[in-house]
Amino acid sequence: MAHHKSAKKRILQTAKKTERNRYYRTRIKNITKAVHEAVEAADKTAAAEAFKVANKQIHSLVSKGFIKKTTAARKVSRLHKMVNKIEAA
């Protein structure tokens, strides 16, 4: 248990940030899962819509500073490749 005021504050801040980070990590997983499911179902329109939502959400997390710009670009690029494979087939 913390004995100093600053240590107590740091514990509270860490708990708050941990909760926020867990929320965003789960959000990214759910967004990408929606795209994966639409691709597996070979539903072009659903995949395109899910990708549009995923692209917007992932880039909004970049602006919040949760993930780096290059990480977001990599994730979006991989999702876009998957969606394009459906449209080509």
What does this structure look like?
With 89 residues, this protein is mainly alpha-helical. It is built from three helices and no strands. The N and C termini lie far apart (60 Å). The model has no long low-confidence stretch (mean pLDDT 94).
Structure characteristics:
89 residues, mainly alpha, 85% helix
Brief write-up:
The chain is built from 3 helices and no strands. It has helices at residues 5-40, 44-63, 69-88.
Topology:
Elements: H1 5-40, H2 44-63, H3 69-88
Helix pairs in contact: 1-2, 1-3, 2-3
Strand portion, in percent? under 5%
Order of helices and strands: HHH
Instruction: Identify the overall geometry.
Output: elongated
Rg value: 18 Å
- Alpha carbon gap, first and last residue: 60 Å
Q: What is the share of helical residues? A: over 70%
Q: Count of helical segments?
A: 3
The count of DSSP E runs of length 2 or more, i.e. the number of strands, is 0
Low-confidence stretches: none
User: What integer is the average pLDDT?
Assistant: 94
The biggest sheet, with number of strands, parallel, antiparallel or mixed sense and barrel status, is: none
Helix/strand class: mainly alpha
> What kind of assembly state do the chains in view correspond to?
single chain
